[in-house]
Write a structure and sequence with these properties.
By secondary structure, the protein is α+β, with helices and mostly antiparallel strands. It folds into two domains: 240 residues, Bira Bifunctional Protein, Domain 2 (BirA Bifunctional Protein, domain 2), CATH 3.30.930.10; 90 residues, 3-Layer(aba) Sandwich (Rossmann fold). The protein contains 15 helices and 16 strands. The strands form three sheets. An eight-stranded mixed β-sheet has the order 1-5-6-11-10-9-7-8, sandwiched between helices. A hairpin with a 5-residue loop joins strand 15 and strand 16. Helix 5 packs parallel to helix 9. The longest helix is centred in the first third of the chain and has 18 residues. The radius of gyration is 27 Å and the shape is elongated. Bound molecules: adenosine monophosphate. The site of adenosine monophosphate has 17 residues, from strand 6, strand 10, strand 11 and helix 11.
Length: 418
């Protein structure tokens, strides 16, 4: 085994082929689905002014207190690598005066300083959608349905949906008061982190992974029991819409999500194939965030999907899968130029194609074609050229046929696999 000079930083990841092809396919499906639901792409910076996240994700959240990559630039500004998508999208929608209501999607890398393990890295990829300016509970249900369609399309059969409502400005103060009362009575049973949460932002105790705290929280007052009539109606309508859409869900009273800006509906998708890090994605309503960023009162709801975990939960690819690639093989120097012309022709017809300029010997060219995962080889030989044909070899079945030069593109296309 060779030893390399450099390795990637802990918690980052590389996507080399064929994983990069797989990633691309998931992203393409996401783009396609987002387009079908009327979302348009928004591209935002990988870092923002730190206060963008402090103000939205929340001072007491795990992300802000423990996980942000915050640094000073050379002029002394505090900047942070984006740990999540929504704050940057809201900031950008306002700064670019995007007309509301609007539906935006984004994808790309996100960064959190966490303890790396299966399904949890310090650099990871999110695919997100945000509907700004839509208040109806039917939108919450539509977005929950979006995620469900996405996972189903990828063959993730064991995805379950968890659902909760955490109330609004009207009903949350009373809930908060009851929760604080309960937590104060059980202060001794809480971990040190939860003592701090209790002081700073009590709802964040629901983010705690400590099993003693989790057990205690099972008996804590539940947000759903404190909903005002408006929130109660909204939540009933979300549930009725999900039922009409044929989507099954489980109610989870502890689903507060680790971000401060949510109100009313929160939801998460879980997969049994992922082990401890079982959340594929999640989202919820955030009706106050646009206003808190200086915009007009704007109801909003969104969803973020973890691309890396999605790829872990997807069924394995078939072994020895061929890809959309044709390989042009030339027999001797005299066929090099005709072969190269054929390469141009195939590409002009939209067929991904390669050849090996270094090889010389056809045997080596066939080996390379196989190693590249090509679907077929088009063989350009002296005998074939005089007869106006190419030999076409299907690399999956090994079958070889002769094809008239003027139909080559059609025949190659029929053999391409992906
Ligand atoms: P969140 O909004 O924090 O729930 O993140 C949404 C989704 O992003 C999660 O459900 C995960 O699929 C993914 N995600 C969040 N943090 C990480 C991480 N550190 N590593 C890999 N995926 C992550």
């Amino acid at each position: 085994m060779s030893s390399f000079k450099h390795s990637r930083p802990k918690g980052t990841q590389d996507f080399a082929p064929p994983q990069s092809d797989r990633k691309h396919r998931v992203e393409e499906l996401f783009r396609h689905l987002a387009g079908l639901y009327g979302f348009q792409e928004i591209v935002i910076p990988v870092f923002e002014h730190t206060e963008v996240f402090i103000k939205s994700t929340g001072v007491g959240s795990d992300i802000v207190t423990k996980q942000m990559y915050t640094f000073k630039d050379r002029a002394g500004r505090s900047l942070t690598l984006r740990p999540e998508g929504t704050p940057g999208v809201v900031r950008a929608a306002l700064e670019n005066r995007v007309r509301m209501p609007c539906r935006l999607f984004y994808l790309g890398p996100y960064f959190r300083y966490e303890r790396p393990q299966k399904g949890r890295t310090r650099e990871f990829n999110q695919l997100g959608i945000e509907a700004l300016g839509e208040a109806s509970p039917l939108v919450d249900a539509e977005i929950i349905g979006f995620g469900d369609s996405f996972f189903r399309e990828l063959g993730i059969a064991d995805c379950t949906i968890q659902l909760n409502s955490i109330g609004c400005r009207e009903c949350r103060p009373l809930y908060r008061q009851n929760l604080v009362g309960f937590l104060t009575r059980h202060r001794d049973e809480l971990c040190n982190d939860c003592h701090v949460r209790l002081e700073r932002n009590p709802l964040r105790v629901f983010d705690c992974k400590n099993s003693a705290c989790q057990n205690l929280l099972a008996q804590a007052p539940k947000p759903r029991e404190h909903l005002c009539s408006e929130c109660d109606r909204h939540f009933s309508e979300v549930r009725e819409a999900l039922n009409r859409q044929g989507l099954q869900y489980e109610l989870n009273d502890r689903l507060a999500r680790g971000l401060d800006y949510y109100n009313r509906t929160t939801f998460e998708y879980l997969s049994g194939r992922l082990g401890a890090q079982d959340s594929l994605g999640g989202g919820g309503r955030y009706d106050y965030l646009v206003e808190e960023f200086g915009g007009p009162e704007t109801p909003a709801t969104g969803l973020a999907i973890g691309l890396d975990r999605t790829m872990l939960a997807m069924p394995e690819l078939e072994q020895n899968k061929r890809r959309r690639l044709a390989f042009v093989v030339w027999m001797s120097d005299a066929e090099l130029e005709p072969a190269r012309k054929l390469l141009d022709q195939l590409r002009a017809e939209g067929i991904p194609a390669r050849m090996d300029f270094d090889a010389g010997r056809p045997k080596r060219q066939f080996k390379l074609a196989d190693a590249a995962g090509a679907s077929c080889c088009v063989i350009v030989g002296p005998d074939e050229l005089t007869r106006g044909v190419y030999s076409l070899k299907d690399l999956l079945t090994g079958e070889q046929t002769e094809v008239p030069v003027n139909t080559i593109a059609i025949q190659v296309r029929a053999l391409l696999r992906d």
